[in-house]
Amino acid sequence: MIRALAAMAGWLALVSASPPAPVSDTAIMGDSLPRNLSEFHFFTDDIGHTPNDRVIGYELNTALFSDYALKNRFVYVPEGQTATYNADGVFEFPVGSALIKSFGYPADFRDADSPVRWLETRVLLRRADGWVALPYVWNEDGTDAVLRRAGRRIPVTWIDAQGEQQSLDYRVPNQNQCKTCHSSNDEIALIGPNARNLNDGQRLAQWVDWSILDRAPDDAPRVPVWDDEGDGTLDERARAYIDINCAHCHSRTGSASNSGLFLGYNEMDEVARGILKRPVAAGRGSGGRDYDIEPGHPERSIFVYRMRSRDPGVAMPELGRGMLHEEGIALIERYIAAMDERS
Amino acid sequence: MKYIAAAAMLLASTSVFAATHTVEAGPDAQERLQEALIIAEPGDTVEIGAGRFELTDGLSLDVANVTVRGAGPDASILDFSNQVGSGEGLLVTSDDVVLRDFAVENTRGDGIKSKEADRIVYHNIRVEWTRGPHPDNGAYGIYPVESTHVLVDGSTVIGSSDAGIYVGQSQQIVVRNNNVHYNVAGIEIENSFYADVYDNVATHNTGGILVFDLPSIPQVGGHSVRVFRNFIHDNNTANFAHEGNIVATVPAGMGVMVMAHRNVEVFNNIMADHGSGNILLVAYPNDYDDERYNPYPLNVTIRDNLYGPAGYNPDFDGGAELQAALGGQLPPIIWDGQGSGIRVSDDIGVLSLGLTRLRQPFQEAQPAPADLSEGEGSAELQAVVLPDSMEAALR
Q1: What is the value of ipTM here, to two decimals?
Q2: Which of B46, B60, B134 has the highest number of chain A CBs within 10 A, making it the mutation to test binding with A?
Q3: Domain range annotation of chain A
């Protein structure tokens, strides 16, 4: 018996010692939609914690708010290729690249060791004819995630950083909703991985060292961390927050192009940024207020009204926000309050 | 040779290979219907069965040349009463889509929105907020925007807190044979080029049909709109739009309203029983910062309409005083006095408010009868012609 067990342990050791299968370039670049996340071999474990070779974890200086979900982000660039640096927009990734993002909630946000329940992993695949965005939903025991093109709602509960019990019908986006945000000129586009949001002083150079990125200029732009009071000005932090949370739709080529409200970090037109801009098709989203941003008056600004709502006919962003982001709202309120009043 | 021709015809007709994806009401309707809208291929039809589909999230379609067809606007009902996500009920972002024969009820935001969806057809659709006028109803019922070639035909919209049928920043538009009731605006054409709005019935809205141009959005300079053969009657519902929106400024009791537009023809309509007026022509009332923008109504022709009672209960600043001064009733056409090239050839009274500059307070108005019979009027507008494929979709 003992001998049998020992033999089995030896066999297990042998199996686990063999190198894992590499990331499947066929799954990324083929024209089918893999049914299971495991088919890509992005991870060497089931649950999606341990990245495979050339799958690199990363973070953004200021990230999109997603109902307080934890997010694990990874990038994969095929061997022998690199992404192309771009000072303003997102980097250009070669065919065969992938971006992978997992969403989950720890049972208790106050406890760093609290187990995380991973709900979904979204992948963006760079194929020959453009990006493809797919949502995968993890099964109950976390052994694999299955493609859910129509999206799903998943009830989830957690204890937040203040010790309050929270619950939410978490929304996994459907495939079209992926594109609603990841859209530019009707093509699927990236949102996060640009120089200013990746640049933490080291990451870009690391990516060059790891042959993920072609170059990392010393003067690469950088946005501050939105909730770090010691980083940048209030104005810069607020605009970094607005950029990543709003500008994927609110751009001249995005899903909210018709609104005339354009919220990219480098937008120069004050009215387009919402300052004394009247609503166009806001409907009851206006909340009876006249301007998107009324300088000095967050309480009279539509911007804050819509961030403060959970009603789907009012709430902004329209997708993926079932909770209020109290800390984000506080930042934007301070940003608007600090603007000089206009007569 | 005949065989080759037949084979070529088969190949040319997508319908030979097209699939029909039928979705019935019942459990998991959300995922089943959304899945059908995702897996549909160009040429396919998504068939919505009879019954009530209980939906909690917005639906969307991003595949070109798909028909979404129900069993009728009272039979196939997409019910969003318990909606918890998305800004609209159904969002279409692909070209050559036909939506017909179903209903969308009680969305939290807009009913059906189509954006950058060229050659979209809405036919025999009903969008309704079933509790009637209420400020918490969604903004737009049928909402095509940023599209070229739009047809909204034979549809009904009830209860929108902004506009029932709203076409924005588009061009080559036909809105006809529709019924719009109990909305703030029945039909609104905004910042658009070349629209024909005809054979519609607009009753019990705050305002019947609006033709507006607004500043500070990508497409400004709206022009070339014909509003004709409509029955526009008894639009006196109190305005229930949220402040801040331009339609919140629409006075109750308004038939047709033109704001800051160029080349508009209003003819052969029947307009009656409007407390404020059968027709109102005004400049944009707010401040703005957009050098591309013209805030005035320019070159408007009003001719050959039939007018019933109007102006007996004006719902705008100073209206009551005016009414008293004029012996209890305003003329059926009111012009704020700004803009140029306006021609009213109908033998009917026109009141000018005599305003001479933008945002001038009403207290400074110099109301007086106006004779606009010699005005230049609109350039002659041609009928909007849609691609054959769109008209064929109605058959």
Answers
A1: 0.86
A2: B60
A3: 14-222, 224-343
